[in-house]
Specification:
- By secondary structure, the protein is α/β, with parallel strands linked by helices.
- Strands 1-2-3-4-5-6-7-8 form an eight-stranded parallel barrel, surrounded by eight helices.
- The longest helix has 18 residues.
Length: 254
């Protein structure tokens, strides 16, 4: 298996990556050079279009980093276009039911497992590697579903039983909002729900992922101790802001 991200997910091995919202390949080059296993291009909340996403994938590929796309929605057009552009992993937002999970996997897989259409595209080197790519894509694409609504928590077992779901990635802020405690991530009800999430992933042998807004040593160690193996560590804009802020603070104390 060439996709190191999917290999890590299936083995429930630690895989650190980060989020990218700055729509320029330079940001991708810097993050790849830093050594992240994967970088997720945020098409849901970022202002990145398909063409820019493709250029970012090129930069990530050149840096030996797995390109991932977080899509705006569970939509076949977005799934197909991101994969054809070279995404090796997809993050599907707001999955609430087993039916929605099955739809995402089906659209991402070629027949007979799914309904993804065949065609010349960047992913198969514009047809040069068509046969090789088509034969292996179903085993290489990492499918990561976001659990970010209380309805999804109630349907975890069904979602986890869908063939082709490689990882469930918790979306804590949206989840807290659906519970009427938006942003209260330390609320007892939130803690109970997150424990239920982790237990379900563990029982089904599926990797659990989480996003760490401020990836300091304590928060990372806590996430690992809780059983998360896919770690989204911060975001490019956050690294830029924090680095700049720290430099200015150093001026003030000098």
């Amino acid at each position: 298996m060439k996709n190191t991200l999917r290999k890590a997910l299936l083995g429930r091995e630690l895989s650190p990556g980060t989020w990218l919202q700055i729509g320029h390949p330079a940001s991708a080059e810097i993050l790849a050079r830093a050594g992240f296993d994967w970088v997720c291009v945020d098409l849901e909340h970022g202002g990145i279009d398909i063409e820019t996403m493709t250029d970012i994938f090129r930069a990530l590929d050149a840096g030996g980093c797995v390109p991932v796309a977080r899509l705006p929605m569970n939509d076949p057009v977005w799934i197909h276009r991101a994969l054809d552009a070279g995404a090796q992993g997809l993050v599907i937002p707001m999955v609430k039911t087993a039916e929605e999970a099955e739809r995402a996997v089906r659209e991402a897989k070629y027949p007979p497992r799914g309904v993804r259409g065949f065609g010349f595209c960047r992913a198969n080197t514009y047809g040069v590697d068509f046969s090789v790519y088509a034969a292996g894509a179903n085993d290489e694409i990492a499918m990561i579903l976001q659990i970010e609504h209380i309805d999804a928590i109630e349907n975890l077992d069904g979602i986890l039983e869908v063939n082709g779901v490689d990882c469930l990635f918790i979306g804590p802020v949206d989840l807290s909002g659906s519970m009427g405690i938006v942003g209260q991530l330390d609320h007892p009800d939130m803690a109970a729900v997150l424990e239920k999430f982790r237990d379900a992933c563990s029982r089904h042998g599926v990797a659990a992922g989480t996003y760490i807004v401020t990836p300091d040593e304590l928060s990372i160690r806590t996430a690992i101790d809780e059983g998360y193996t896919l770690l989204g560590l911060g975001i490019d804009s956050g690294y830029l802001f924090e680095g700049a802020k720290k430099a200015l603070e150093n001026v003030k104390i000098s």
